[in-house]
Amino acid sequence: MNTIDARIHQVLDGELPIDALPAELRHRMQVVRGAADLLAVPVPGPSLESRIMAEVRRPAPSFMRRMASWFATPHAVTFRVRPVWSVAFAAAVAVFTVFFARDAGPQLGEHEGIAQFVGRFPNARSVHVVGTFNDWRPGTIALQDLDHDGVWTATVVLPTGTYEYMFVVDGERWVPDHLADRLVADDFGRENSVVIVRPVHR
Amino acid sequence: MRLGVVLALLGAGAGAGGVTPLAAQSVQSRLEGRIPGDAVPVVDSLVQVALHEGLPSEPLVQKALEGGAKQVPGPRIVAAVRATLAQLRDARDLLVRAGDQPPVRPGEVTTVAWALRRKLPPSTVERVVAELPHPPRGAAIHAIADLVAHDFDPDSSAGLIIAAVNDGLQRDRLLDVSTAALHEVQRGRTRDEAIAVVRQQLPNVPWPPKPERGTVTRARRPETPTPP
Q1: Which domain holds residue A22?
Q2: Considering the domain boundaries, does residue A104 fall inside one?
Q3: ipTM above threshold 0.85
Q4: Could you report the per-residue pLDDT of B92-122, keeping only the tens digit for each?
Q5: B76 contacts in A (CB within 8 Å)?
Q6: Which of B66, B78, B80, B209 is the most buried (most CB within 10 A)?
Q7: How many domains are there within chain A?
Q8: pTM for the model
């Protein structure tokens, strides 16, 4: 930044005649005086005071307008993330996906329901449920006894409808489901259990 | 030209027996290896008879497959399939007698045959068909059969379910009506009282509990049966 010579100040303040200045300072003095003359010319239009007062009196914009204006105006957003937190977040998402999202179960259709088969067969090596839902084909729907308490269960998605079924224990013993609400003669001297599968979505 | 020949052959097949060769082939392939070999052609012919008469054939196939899975000898399988065919005919005749116009819907025939197997009196089924002229009536018949199986009076049971239908309940919601009546009996009411109580509740009988999230999560689709 250029500083103004003290003698120019003295000339401007009237303390020193301009002729007392050396030639180069006299030239700069003329430039400064020309600029001052320009600033002294009155600017057409409203004064600063009136413009400020007009701004003050203008009604405040509505909340929605301010929101719209805020959304429309560009804003600089700065994230300061430590890489270690990024890795931790990615690991948390992966764990959630593996243990929860993956095992959300099947997507059930409008005409599908869930049938739960439960039977108590202590000492059984295997239990299957066989019926009209799987063409009476043994081996396609296995019950499980994960805690080895003799209670075997299977939860199966089936089309809605009425089905007859029996349990097959250890691949050879045919047993009706004694917990079933409905039993019907099977025309072979035994009774089939009956399950009505209702739609899950209602 | 080629399309015309195919259509002519299909028309001739349908005209000869009302059965497409494809249907016959698929029934045989489902039975072979699953039931004794000498029973296959007999069961197959019974299936063709059912199709010819406009009766559902799947109950016959299922009865044969059931017999085969249970290691039942061939003649007993054939006898059971014949009995099933007779039940389907009885059911069809009952539906027509009660007012249904032939051809009767196969689903209705299967449901009525199943209800008769559950010892539902034919007169009760006739009443249901007459008072509920618009199929499907499967859920209504199942609900009545559930009540009768628990020693409810057949006429009172039918009256309750018909009242539920007239109050706007449909399809599976009718099963909730019979369940509500059974719950009233478990609470100590007599069967007549239970029917009266549930009738007053109509149509606001409780919904069954929705399956828990864990149940849905555990559910698996069974493997698709593979041809033998």
Answers
A1: 1-63
A2: no
A3: no
A4: 999 999 888 878 888 889 989 988 888 899 9
A5: 188
A6: B66
A7: 2
A8: 0.68
